[in-house]
Design brief:
50% of the residues lie in helices and 17% in strands. It has 323 residues and is α/β, with parallel strands linked by helices. It folds into two domains: 4-209 and 301-320, Spore Coat Polysaccharide Biosynthesis Protein SpsA, Chain A (Alpha-Beta Complex), CATH 3.90.550; 228-298. The structure holds uridine-5'-diphosphate and magnesium ion.
């Protein structure tokens, strides 16, 4: 069997504590997989701690490590994109630096890939390492998203997965700047196999996603893959108008039949505030989409690279310079 080059993509944002633990655990696993050679592409997503120094010393010592240094913090989605763009492997595997994705699964992923899968998903069977609130909101998000959008995101599947080169090339062709990776991964399709695993708690450091960041993430997901939130307002507005008309008719008849009606401040107040708020929500939703259109039309790159360090690192400079 020929030896295939595989790439591990590791986005790192302030992971100085986690990196050594990560490599110590991952390297033996990778070395044990037969007929593969590995490159490990770390993306330093503008870390403010010693992450970059750690990564550089790794890259100096071992030619398998490469470090893509972004010019500032661009967020995990952009960092992942940078890593995927820089990867050269026949198979590409994004993995978190905090060891929440078990590296041991990589052997099974490679086996499934060799057996013909173009995309191998890793599905968490339980999320006990996440808090109850995070689990519940995540499950709501998937249900809402999959109801609204034609692109179904598989539940409990993260960025940890194996992608064949054909999938990577397909991903690179997607031009959008705001990259909701879970959605893009699902959108490209390809022959997919799913493996199950149990998600571990973080090895070191703490989660970078707060409640509000997750909310924004969910908004991004829904609005980049569905226009349903834009469209439902027409129907809501129409049914509201019909109801209001019927009510007006009813008041008219009542006035004719029983004369002087009771002063209706309460119902008036309710109606005004209700429809006022419905309008505000719909305006807000329009804003979400227009904001996204605005960002896309600026055509800014998803990330900027300061330098790529490591073995024959190739092009320095601006993202997507076409390789
Ligand atoms: N990450 C990143 N840029 C960011 C935030 C996070 O590259 O702006 C990386 C982080 O270093 C880690 C991965 O994304 O390797 C997942 O982050 P985290 O563990 O904080 O997310 P969670 O597991 O809580 O969803
Ligand atoms: Mg994590």
């Amino acid at each position: 069997m020929t030896i295939s080059l595989c790439s591990l993509i590791v986005p790192c944002y302030n992971e100085a504590l986690a990196i050594r633990v990560f490599t110590a655990r991952v390297l033996p696993v990778l070395e044990a997989i037969a007929d593969t050679s590995w490159e490990i592409v770390f993306v330093d997503d503008g870390s403010t701690d010693a992450t970059l120094d750690e990564l550089l010393s790794l890259a100096r010592a071992d030619a398998r490590f490469r470090v893509v240094e972004l010019s500032r913090n661009f967020g995990k989605e952009a960092a992942l994109t940078a890593g995927i763009d820089a990867a050269r492997g026949h198979a590409v595997i994004p993995i978190d630096a905090d060891l929440q994705d078990p590296p041991e699964l990589i052997a099974d992923m490679v086996a499934a890939w060799r057996a013909g899968a173009e995309m191998v998903l890793a599905r968490r069977t339980d999320r006990l390492s996440d808090g109850l609130l995070k689990r519940q909101t995540a499950s709501w998000f998937y249900r809402l998203h999959n109801r609204l959008s034609k692109t179904r995101i598989p539940e409990n599947v993260g960025d940890f997965r194996l992608m064949d080169r054909v999938v990577v090339e397909a991903l690179k062709r997607l031009p959008e700047r705001q990259r909701f990776m879970k959605g893009l991964f699902a959108w490209v399709g390809f022959r997919t196999v799913t493996l199950d695993y149990v998600r571990a708690p973080r090895a070191a450091g703490q989660s970078k996603f707060s409640g509000f960041a997750l909310w924004n993430f969910a908004m991004e997901g829904v609005t980049s893959f569905s226009t349903a939130p834009l469209k439902i307002w027409t129907y809501l507005g129409a049914s509201g108008a019909i109801l209001a008309l019927l009510y007006a008719l009813y008041i008219l008849l009542r006035t004719i039949v029983s004369g002087n009606p009771v002063p209706g401040y309460a119902s008036l107040f309710v109606a005004v505030t209700f429809f006022g708020s419905v309008q505000l929500i719909s305006v807000g939703l329009l804003g979400e989409y227009i904001g996204r259109i605005y960002v896309e039309t600026k055509q800014r790159p998803a990330y900027l690279i300061r330098k790529i360090h490591g073995a024959a690192s190739g092009v320095d400079g601006v993202a997507r310079s076409g390789d």
